[in-house]
Amino acid sequence: MTAASAPAPASAPRPGLRERKKLKTRLAIRAATYGLIREQGYEATTVERIAEAAEVSPSTVLRYFPTKEDIVLTDEYDPLLESELRARPADEPIVESLRHVLRRAVSLGLAEEPEVTRLRTKLMTEVPAVRSRMLESMSVTGAVLCRVIAERTGRDAGDLEVRVFSMGLIGALTETTAYWAEHDHEDDLSALVDRTFAMLTSGFAGP
After folding, report:
1. What is the 3-state secondary structure (H, E, C) of 94-139?
2. pLDDT in the model for residue 3
3. Is the pLDDT of residue 37 over 50?
C-alpha cells in the first residue's frame, strides 16, 4: 500500500517462532534503512551500510528485500489487504469497503509510525527509483483488488471493467499520497482519502 499499512485483523493467529524471527529481521532491516536515510540521505544509504546497521549480511538484506526500494515500499501488512476487504460485509459497496479499510490504515499508520509514514511518502515523490519501483508494484495490489471486486460483483477478475476500476483506484490513492507529501504533509491524510473516495463515487465536478 502506498498511504499506510493495512491493519492486522484482531483475530489473526499468533505467528510461530520461525515467522517471528523472520519478522524481527525484516523490521531490523527497515529500521536500519530509515535511520540511515534520515542521517545521510537515500543515495548514500547502500545495502552494505544497511546490513552493517541491522547486523546481518548483505545477502540477508537482499533475500528479504530484492531491491533497496523494496525496503522503503514494503510494510508488514500488505498481504492483509485482501483478508481485510473480505472481512467487510458482502453487500457493502466495494468503494465503501476500500474507504473503510484504507482510512483505518492511515489512522493506524500515522498513530504508530508518523515519522516513517511521512518519510516513505516523501521518498515516493522525490526519489525516481522509489517511485518507479512503486509503479511496478502497483500491479500486485491491483491483482488483489481485482480478485475481491470480482467476487463481490460476480464478474471475472480479468474483465476489462474490473481491471480498469482496480488500477484506477490505485492510481487515485497514489496521487493522494503524492499530493500529501508535496504539500509538506500539512493536510489531514484521512480527510484527503475521504475526498478521493468522494470524487470516485460522485465524479469530478469541475470548478
Report:
1. HHHHHHHHHHHHHHHHHHHCHHHHHHHHHHHHHCHHHHHHHHHHHH
2. 45
3. yes
Q: Residue 7's pLDDT band (boundaries 50, 70, 90)? A: very low
Give alpha helix (H) positions in 4-127. 17-40, 47-54, 58-64, 68-73, 81-86, 94-112, 114-126
95 touches 154 (CB < 8 A): no
Nearest to 79 by CA among 133, 153, 26: 26
- CA 46/CA 43 separation, integer angstroms: 7
**CA nearest to 61, candidates 33, 81, 100:** 33
CA distance 161 to 23: 37
Indicate whether 177 pLDDT > 80: yes
Closest CA to 134 of 77, 72, 61, 196: 72
Q: How far apart are CA 80 and CA 5, in angstroms?
A: 9
Between 160-182 and 94-112, two packed helices, what is the crossing angle to 10 degrees? 30
For cell 471493467, the residue is 161
Residue 206 confidence class, pLDDT cut points 50, 70, 90: low
Position 78 confidence tier, pLDDT thresholds 50, 70, 90: low
Enter the C-alpha cell of residue 74: 514494503
